[in-house]
What we know:
mainly alpha
Amino acid sequence: MLKEFQEFIAKGNVMDLAVGVIIGGAFGLIVNSLVGDIIMPIVGMAGSADFSNYFYPLSDAVTATSLEEAKKQGPVFAYGNFLTVVINFLILAWIVFLIVKGVNTMRRKLEKQKAAAPAAPPPADVQLLTEIRDLLAKR
């Protein structure tokens, strides 16, 4: 069982997936910072600079002005936090789209280059055998 586990872990796909998850996690932190520290304050200039504290109390017992305190007092509809997460997702999806688009463009260029490249001439022995075949076919 241990040997099978080692073979499973040693496969390239598992390692690629692990690297992808680690890089994805780090990339998610970058996007969260971009949204939370740069984009949301600009969007929040219409009201408050802290967009994540926008909420609607669902109970009369909720009187707090910050989302964290309001959640302690009762149920709240935290639309500001949700909006921040949606913007995070849209930015991340846009970046992934641009990466995939770039990779697809690069692949198409490589395929065109391969198709346009002249075929390498066959080795000398194959050329010689082809000539012999053609001479025998003429007789």
